[in-house]
Amino acid sequence: STIKQAKEGTGLEEQLRKCKNVLAMKEWDLHEIYCNEKGISGTTEIKDRKELNDLIEDAKKGLFQCVIFN
User: Fold this and answer.
1) I need a surface site. Which of 6, 45, 51, 59 has the fewest CB within 10 A?
2) What's the CA angle centered on 23, arms 56 and 35, to 5 degrees?
3) pLDDT above 70 for 9
């Protein structure tokens, strides 16, 4: 996330907190967190985003039923 996002409360830590709140409300189990790409823009090509590629591969393996994002 950018410095601006962090200052505005929309940085990775805040996004993760919101996602974990959804898990708690729904009483769902957490499989994995795929958001550790600080400083990587959403416009970065998929091939260059390790965490996104890991998520795609785990989805293909059927390791989870849904994805929560913020």
Assistant:
1) 45
2) 40
3) no
